[in-house]
Amino acid sequence: MSSTAKWATQREAAAALKMSERSLQRLRNDGHLPAGKCWIRKIPANLNSHVIYDLDACEYHLSAATIAAQMEQEGLGHRALEAVA
Asked: Is residue 1 part of a domain?
């Protein structure tokens, strides 16, 4: 975690990422937003503690997932990356 991270509550993060709070929670539960990088608990020892999000990390992971899904849908993949390299 960087010391310059902008942490936001679930409501603030959902608004900033232009999605519902439930969608944000679903992305977190499905592993699309990795714990420790995109979100942490306010009280780590308490599993019922509120979650706060690193907006920059969330945007990065969501954009990377979007690009990967588009490449996969277009039939690209690691072959396209090998051509670039």
From this structure: no
